Amino acid sequence: MKKLSLLFLALLPLSGFAQPSTTGPVPVPPPDSRPDMRRLAYLARAQEVRQWYVDSIKPENPATFGPAAIAAKLVRREDAAAVSARIVELMQGPQSGDMFWMFPWTAISFLGRDQLSPEAKAAIRDAWRTYFPLRGDTENHWAMYYTSLFLMSELHPDDAGPTWFNGKSSAENRAEAKAYLLHWMDLATTIGQGEYNPTHYIGEYAIPMLYLSAWAQDPEMRIRGQMKLDWLLADLAASTLHGVLRGPNARTDDTSVVQRWLALSSYFSWQCFGNTPPPPSYGGFGVWFAVAAEHYTVPEVVHRIAVDRDAPYTQHDLKRTRRRWRYSDELMPLVYKTTYMHRDYAVGSTQGGLVTDPIQAHVWDVTWAVPDPRGVHNTMFSAHPHSSGKVMQMYFTELPDHMIEALASQGKPSYDVPDKILGSSPYEQVFQDRDTVIALYDIPADTRFPHINGFISKDLVNVTEDKQSGWIFAQGGNTYLAYRPLAGFEWQPRLGYKQLPSKAGYKWERVNLGDKGDRLLYSPHRKNGTIVQAASASEFKSFADFQAAINALPLTFSLEPVPTVKLRTLRGQDIAFTYGRTPVLNGRPVDYAAWKLFEGPYLNAEKGSRKLTITHGRLERVLDFNTLTITDRVREN
Amino acid sequence: MTPSLSRFLLRFTLAAGLGFPLLLRAAAPVHDLYLCASINSTSRVMGGGGGAKDGIYQRTADGAFVHRGLNMPLLITLVVDPRAPERIYAAGLSGAMRTTDAGQSWRILTGWDETEPKSLALDPQAPDTVYVGLPDGFIVSRDQGQTWQRREQGLPARGKYTQCLQVDRTCGGRVFIGCEAGIFLTEDGAASWRRVFPATDTVNDIQQSPHDPAHWVAVSQSAGGLESRDGGLTWTRLPGLPNEHALYNVTFDPKRAGRLAVASWTYGLFTSEDDGRTWTNRNAGLPETPRVWRTAVDPDDGRLYAAVYEKSLYASADFGRTWRELPGMEGSVIRSFTFVPQAR
Predict the structure, then answer these.
(1) What is the per-residue pLDDT across A592-620, written as a single tens digit (0 to 9) for each?
(2) 216-275 in A: which are within 8 Å (CB) of B?
(3) Phi and psi (nearest 5°) for A54?
(4) Structural domain boundaries of chain A?
C-alpha cells in the first residue's frame, strides 16, 4: 500500500506566524465587472503565501528554510546566494518524497534559472541522477512524475541516460512523459476525470498543469497545461458553494468529509476565486501553486461560475473510477455524478457502489452554506462502512492480507473501523434528483460491518425526530433538512481521531467530544435506506411548515426482498428506486448511457468529445483538445 | 549507486570470465543469495521517506545480510542473466529495470503503460528473452528489455492480472503464468496462451520441480495448492493444504526430492516430505502466529527459509522442525529469494 496520506500535513512548515487570510474575515470576491481588481487580488493572495513562507524562515532552525521557502525567495528574487548555498546543503543529504520531491525541485529549477549559482544548479541536476523517486501507482502520482520529468528533460534537453535516475536520456524521458500526459488528458476529456473532485488531490493535478503552462517549451504541452488547468478549475468552480467543495469526492479524508472547508481545494478556491478562507498553511501544497501563479490567469467565465449562486442549477458529470486491476469486469467503470447547487445548500452524489477509491471516496451528501465555514461540520449523509481485503486487491497490486492493517499506519485510520463514514461500498446504491437523495443498502450477512452509519452534525439545530412519520428534521444555516432512515436505528456519539506523536507510522486515539461532538445514526439492519430532502428556509413560512410539507409527500417503501422506495419529492418529481434496478424518474428509467461528460448551465461536453464549453451568462470559453484551441467569445443575447 | 553489489558482482564477473578459482571459498556456498526486501516500511506512503532501507540485500560470507542498493520499496524480484552476471533484471513498482554494470546504474526498461510488474523471468533457452507479468497482462522482450510487445492472445480481456510466471527450464518458449482467471500456458514464447487451470482468484506462485521437470506445483488465493504431474497440462488440488485463505508461495527443495514448503500469511509455514501427499505445519519456533510472506530452500544445503512479515528472516537446518533467526533482516518484508550460482 502506498498512497499519499496526510502528506500535506507533514509538509507544513514549523511556523508560528499567523496567516492573514486563514485567520481573518471570510473574503468577499471582487466584483465581476473589475477584472483588473480580480487580477490584483489573485496576485496579492499568491504573494501572501510566499510572504508567509519567507517569514517562516528561522535562522536557528534550518528545517524552516526548506524547498517551499527557497521557491518563495526565488519568486521574490531575493538572497540568491543564500538560497543557492541552502540548496547545495539540502542536496548533500539523502532525498525522499518521490514525485512529491520531483515537482518542487522542478519548480525551483525553473524559478532559479537565472538566479542560482552553478553549484546549486549542478547539485539539483545531480540529484536527478542519484535519487531514484518512485513512479507511483495512481494518476495523481503520474501527473506529478511525468510533468516533472517532461519539464526537467526540456530544461536539460540533451543529457544522456546515465545522467538520469531512470537511465533514460532526456529525449526518452521527454517522449515518455508527453505520451503519458496526452494519454491521461485524453481519458479525462473523453470519459472523465479519474480522481474527480478530490478535496486534497486537486493540487496534484492543478500544480503540474500550471507548471506545464508556465514552463513547457513545447507549445503543445504549454497550451495543454493551460487548458487542463482551466478544465480542473471550471469543475471546481461548479462544484463549490462559497468556495467550499461539495458533494461526492473520489478521495477525501476523515476530517474533510465532515468539515468540508478544511481541504486543499479551499486553497484553490481562495487563490483563484477569493471566496473562502484558505486552510492552515495554505493546505501545505498551496505554496507550489503560488510560486508560479503569475503565469496563469483565471478565466473570467470560470470566476463567475464560482461566485454566482443567484439561481439554483443541476449539473450532471461523467467521471471514472481508478483502475481496477482485477475482480471486476471493467478496468475503469464510469461514475455518474449529480450536483444540485442552491445559494443556501448543495446536494451531490454518485450512483454508489465502489466508486473510484475504496478507502477515501465520499459518495453523497447534503451540505449547507454557513457564513464562516471554519470548524463547521455542515454536512449530512449516510454510508455503509465497507472493509474488504479483496476489494483492496481490486485496486492495488498487492497480496491480500496486509493491506487493511497497513492502511492504519499509513494515515488512513478509519478503513477498518465499524463507525467509519468514509469510503465507498458495493452494497450502496444512490439516486438523486435535484435536492432529494435516496441511498439504498442491501448488505450481505457475511460482510465485515453489516450496518449503516448516518452522519448527524454537531452544527445542526432543531433536530427533531417525528416518531409518527419516521422523518428526522433539522436545520443547518438557512437550510431545512429532512432525513428518513428506512429501518430502525440508535444514536451513537461519533468519535473523532486525534493523531499521536509517532516515529513509526501513523498513530492515533479516538476522542469522544460528548455533547459537543457529532452523532452517528447507527442502523444494524442490512436491508436499509436513507432519504434526505433539503430546501431553503426562505421557501417556507416556518420550520413547522417545512415538516408538514415533507410529511404530506407520498412515500412508500419496503425492505424485502430488496429495498425499494416510491416518493414524490418536494419538487413534485416521482421517484421509484429499487436496489439493483435502474432508478425511474417520472415514469422513465434514468438513461445513464446518455449521460454526457458535462451537462448543466455552466459546463457542457459530449462524452468522447475532448471539448468543454464553459458558459456563464453571455461569456463562453471553449477548451478544444482536438484542435488545442481556447476560444473565448461573448455570445449574443 | 551500489558499489558493494557492483564490486561483488564484478569480482564474480571476473571470476566467471577469466577463471579465477581462488575467488571461491573452499567451504562456502556455491550460490549467492539475494533478497528483494523492505525494512520497516509498511507505514511508508508514496512521497514519504526516511529510514527505510529497501531494495536488494545480499548474504555475506558470515551468513548475515547486507543492503546492496537499489533503494526501492516494493522491489519484487531479481534475475541475473546466466551469461553475463553483471546484467541483472529487476521488477518493482516503477517498472522492469536492468543494470548492465552490476548495479552501479539502473535503467527502467518499461514505459508509462506497463505499470507495476509483478513478475519477471528470462527464458533459460534464450536469455535475451524477458517475460514480465503485469497487473493488466503480459509483455515480452526479445532484446534484453530494449523493446517490448504485448503478448496476450488467448488471455481473457479481464482476469489476466499476472501475479507470477515460470519458464519451463527444459523447453524454450514454454511459460506458465498465474493469473486471476487461473493458470495459463504458452508453448510458443507467448505468441498464444491457453488456460490449463481455471480459477476465480489470483494464482500466487508456480514452481517447477528441480527433480522432475514434469512435476509442477502452484499456490493460490482461494484454490489452495495445486500440482501437475504431466508438465502442467492438467492440475489437481494438493490434498492437505487449506484453501480458505491465501497461500503465498511454494518452493521445492532442490537438494532432496519430495520436500516442499508453502508460505502463508494466515497459516504460517507448511512442509511436505512426501512430494506433497501430506503437509505439516512448521510454525513452532517461529514468531507466534507467523505471517510467512515467502519461503525458499537453499540449493546448497537444503536450509529452509521463512520470511515472516515485518518480523525477520528465519532459517531451519531440519526443514522446519527448529528455527533460528538470521541477522540483518529484522522488521523486513522479503518478496523474493534469488540464488545465483557462483562462478567456478
Answers:
(1) 999 999 999 999 999 999 999 999 999 99
(2) none
(3) -65, -40
(4) 56-133, 313-599, 606-634
